[in-house]
């Protein structure tokens, strides 16, 4: 579809790097405003992402009907074909035809500026979702896969990737209880529906504001909140507010328990537990952790407990430091409370290191940062980024840039659409969307991956390019790490393309990019003052890196506490006590600051929905990324051999290989939980060299 023809030409024809005339260097693509109108070649007026039907919102219906028809054909085909490796291939094609519409629509429904497009996309998501549910309970379809997996001789003849993908498809089936008797299957379906409803209701409740009578708060802080008649409305924790009383009030009011939300959470957790047991697991956590790096709840708890023990002394020191700062500013009331750390640690950072973002921004123009990324990928992986002019109707907003990702010998690898700039109604989150997965097609061509990166950067103006704060620059590197995971994957099946891998592995490539973004040797290559051309001084980079370590133990300790809470909630049921009592005990054990009576933070823990039993993933991904950085890139961040190994052992497989095997292949050893803990703790050490350099 999108670029099949061009791909053929490139793959056959290009052995050396050659730049298409429609491509421009990546820096220019982000520095120069797009010129004139989009190309509108006759007969090629494309729709969104080059999908012809999507030139108008009504096209979604056409695309979705086409997908549903193709699905029916494929279902018939797989059910009437004897089992073999092709069974997996047809399953993957089936999944591809649905995902291609659903993933694209998933993005469009939240990001398109036009309501009509968003609504049409929403409708497409719904109808494909219904189809997926139907397929997951289609016994005939299930049996065709079952016949393959039950035949030991056949299974042994499958290559590891095919076998893994077959098992992953089976795993999806089993949660709907398809392998159970009729009565149990009905219960599984009912539970799935209930969990879906409870999840969205709980999620909504996590953002819901709380109100309190005005007269209960001192008048001097009223103006910090929204007022509604006689009431004060509190819709967030106000963690950065300088006034202690504002943060305290926000904390106590926003976290005041809501009976309905409490009930929703309890029901959600117990329904998940019932479903897991019904389909054969001891707890929900056991099911969620199948196929991950950690593999079992026991390993996750071991990781969290060891990490917590190793952190505790450093955390206490951080708390002391934060308490000292509070005492200095507010001697009458210097007891350290849970609403204090974010604000005071920010103050300490600013006081110790002169890291005002405006000092850094001029060195991080978006064009320079993109050049830096292209250069890094080029030296590490032989890959370059080029700006490409999209066709008319291909993008949803004029400021979206399209990047072609080109390998020096393999040619075009895929496309990244960069939706980087703020606009009205655009969700305020940085994220990566898979629009189309890579897969080997039956005709031998490779279906190129297509992704969107969404950021919220300020627009450039006539005399000022888009300038990034250090935080935005790091985010850009992080998100590009996800994009390159998608681009460099060469999985046979789109079901495991790029970032479609276990949750605790998914953040490894992106967090690894943060290590590059914080290394002077890398930053030095691209950070230039947009007016003077001067490069960013070395001590400014060091200062920035060291500032991030201030109170970092306390921050990590908080994450450990959240992750442990998530494990316990999704562990053995019935729970030993109320979710609030568990919160209190876990906070004491894993954090260290006192629980505040009449609060229930867990009711605002929105990640319980999407990351149920996997909240630890971010910490574990960070541990792996840190080890990869230390073992393979720290000595030379441009080491081509290490870069090639990184692609071969990790990125190329997407989710098609067991994650621990990828980690082992990369590190050339099998890391233990202690290794994970050690590397995370070592990252908190101050760099002595920097310290000396700065004090002279
Ligand atoms: Zn990420």
From TrEMBL:
Belongs to the peptidase M3 family. Binds 1 zinc ion. Pfam families: Peptidase_M3 (PF01432). Its main location: mitochondrion. This is Peptidase M3A/M3B catalytic domain-containing protein. Its cofactor is Zn(2+). Gene3D superfamilies: Collagenase (Catalytic Domain) (3.40.390.10), Neurolysin, domain 3 (1.10.1370.10). It is found in: Mitochondrion. It comes from the Eukaryota. The keyword Transit peptide applies. Keywords: Hydrolase, Metal-binding, Metalloprotease, Mitochondrion, Protease, Transit peptide, Zinc. SUPFAM superfamilies: Metalloproteases ('zincins'), catalytic domain (SSF55486). Residues 239-680 form the Peptidase M3A/M3B catalytic domain. The keyword Transcription regulation does not apply. InterPro entries: M3A_MIP, MetalloPept_cat_dom_sf, Neurolysin/TOP_dom2, Pept_M3A_M3B, Pept_M3A_M3B_dom.
């Amino acid at each position: 579809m999108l670029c099949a023809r061009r791909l053929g030409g490139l793959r056959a024809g290009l052995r050396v790097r050659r730049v298409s005339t429609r491509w421009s260097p990546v820096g220019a693509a982000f520095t120069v405003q797009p010129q004139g109108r989009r190309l509108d070649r006759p007969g090629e007026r494309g729709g969104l992402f080059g999908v012809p039907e999507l030139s108008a919102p009504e096209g979604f219906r056409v695309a979705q009907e086409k997908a549903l028809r193709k699905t029916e054909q494929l279902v018939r085909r797989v059910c009437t074909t004897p089992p073999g490796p092709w069974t997996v291939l047809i399953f993957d094609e089936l999944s591809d035809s649905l995902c291609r519409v659903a993933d694209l629509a998933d993005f469009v429904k939240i990001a398109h500026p036009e309501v009509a497009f968003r609504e049409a996309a929403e409708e497409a998501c719904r109808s494909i979702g219904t189809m997926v549910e139907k397929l997951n309970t289609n016994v005939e379809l299930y049996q065709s896969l079952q016949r393959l997996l039950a035949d030991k001789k056949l299974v042994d003849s499958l290559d590891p990737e095919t076998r893994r993908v077959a098992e992953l498809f089976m795993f999806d089936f089993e949660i709907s209880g398809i392998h159970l008797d009729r009565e149990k299957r009905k219960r599984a379906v009912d539970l799935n529906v209930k969990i879906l409803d409870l999840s969205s209701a709980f999620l909504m409740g996590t953002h819901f504001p709380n109100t309190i009578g005005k007269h209960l708060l001192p008048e001097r802080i009223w103006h910090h909140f929204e007022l509604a008649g006689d009431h004060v409305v509190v819709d967030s924790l106000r963690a950065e507010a300088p006034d202690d009383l504002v943060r305290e009030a926000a904390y106590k009011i926003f976290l005041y328990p809501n009976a309905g939300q409490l009930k929703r959470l309890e029901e959600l957790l117990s329904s998940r537990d019932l479903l897991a047991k019904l389909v054969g697991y001891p707890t929900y956590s056991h099911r969620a952790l199948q196929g991950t790096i950690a593999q079992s709840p026991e390993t996750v708890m071991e990781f969290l407990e060891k990490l917590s023990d190793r952190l505790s002394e450093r955390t206490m020191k951080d708390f002391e430091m934060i308490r000292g700062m509070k005492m200095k500013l507010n001697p009458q009331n210097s007891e350290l409370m849970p609403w204090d750390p974010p604000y005071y640690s920010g103050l300490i950072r600013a006081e110790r290191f002169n890291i005002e973002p405006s000092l850094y921004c001029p060195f991080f123009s978006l064009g320079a940062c993109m050049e830096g990324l292209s250069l890094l990928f080029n030296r590490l992986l032989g890959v370059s980024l080029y700006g490409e002019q999209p066709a008319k109707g291909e993008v949803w907003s004029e400021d979206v840039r399209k990047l072609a990702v080109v390998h020096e010998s393999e040619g075009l690898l895929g496309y990244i659409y960069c939706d980087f700039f703020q606009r009205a109604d655009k969700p305020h989150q940085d994220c990566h969307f898979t629009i189309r997965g890579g897969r080997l097609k039956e005709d031998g061509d490779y279906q190129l991956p297509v992704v969107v990166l969404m950021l919220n950067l300020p627009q450039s103006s006539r005399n000022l390019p888009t300038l990034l704060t250090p935080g935005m620059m790091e985010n850009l590197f992080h998100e590009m790490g996800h994009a390159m995971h998608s681009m460099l994957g060469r999985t046979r099946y789109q079901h495991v393309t790029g970032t479609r891998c276990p949750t605790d592995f998914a953040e490894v490539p992106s967090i690894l990019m943060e290590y590059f973004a914080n290394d002077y040797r890398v930053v030095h290559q691209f950070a230039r003052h947009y007016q003077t051309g001067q490069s960013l001084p070395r001590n400014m980079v060091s200062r920035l890196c060291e500032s991030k370590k201030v109170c970092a133990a306390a921050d990590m300790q908080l994450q450990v506490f959240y992750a442990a809470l998530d494990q316990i909630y999704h562990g053995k049921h019935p729970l030993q006590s109320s979710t609030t009592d568990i919160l209190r005990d876990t906070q004491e054990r894993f954090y260290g600051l006192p629980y505040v009576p009449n609060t229930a933070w867990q009711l605002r823990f929105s990640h319980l929905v999407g990351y149920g039993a996997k909240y630890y993933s971010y910490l574990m991904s960070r541990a792996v990324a840190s080890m990869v950085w230390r073992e393979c890139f720290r000595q030379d961040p441009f080491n081509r051999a290490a870069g090639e190994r990184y692609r071969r052992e990790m990125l190329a497989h997407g989710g098609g290989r067991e994650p621990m095997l990828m980690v082992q292949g990369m590190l050339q050893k099998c890391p233990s939980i202690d290794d994970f803990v050690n590397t995370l703790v070592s990252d908190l050490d101050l760099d002595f060299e920097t310290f000396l350099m700065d004090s002279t």
